Records
---
Amino acid sequence: MTGATTVSLAQAWIALRADDPDAVSALLVARASLGAGRALAELRRWRLIELAGSRLDRDAIAGHLHGSTQFYNPHKEHCVVRVTDADPLPAPGLAYAVVWERDGDRRAAAERWWRHETGETVEVHEAHVWGAAFAPGTAADVAMDELVRVRDARHGLLCNPWSQASATGPRQLPWIGAPGGER
């Protein structure tokens, strides 16, 4: 392809077109029972899929993602693709937290599909990203840490303390942790 740029990492940010019931529920619980929740103006959730490979063609990434139900359903979900830190986030100005499965949550079926369709090998990881907007004057990073922090060994609002790990604050690509921890 002419003018195509080859990248080694891409992200797909996938959100429901309708209200996300998990985000609505978490917003209501946070407002009712957490100090940081009182200043919470908005809470959103995305599935984040990261593709890592040696030869990902920027012009073809979106087409392959949109052409397969391995990644998302375009009838009920919306997808935004990022390939550099300079690419805009789907909702700029929010405080973000990424939550991933401790075992890495690798998508083997999606990797096989990609290899079959493109002839290229990729590594596919999936996580969730929570984005929060807070009332003016609120320290967003501190408030987001409170929402993500596990208060004890059995409870977590945005992160299951038994099976998930999380990180907050400004982050660079890649966001998702490799098996056993962050990349």
---
Amino acid sequence: MDLTPKTPAELGIDADLLDEASDILQPFEKLVPVKVLDEIKYLPENNSLWRGLQFCGLIDRSVTIDFGRFCLAGTCTHCKGLVQEADMDRRDAMLLCQTIAKAGTHIKKLPDGFRLKKSYA
């Protein structure tokens, strides 16, 4: 996996969509490659995996989330997924709302309530 972060412009992301997504995100300049199941997604740096997946849902509709299941504060623990960060030898159960997106992270199992639409490009 190419771990090079990209700018939204390099990925051809529409400026109006970026502006719409900015309300839910911490400030970022680059998008980092994260493997979600078997697909590479670019998530905003300095943001949680949860917010990054929400960003994908807004930008390209590739992720859907059942918002009613989650608290976004780490207290419900419903967003626990199997995650392997680039510097880890093994995967661990991690809260997506509390884990910051980093290049090379691999989400091996999404929690119930998250759905990834397969792309056939």
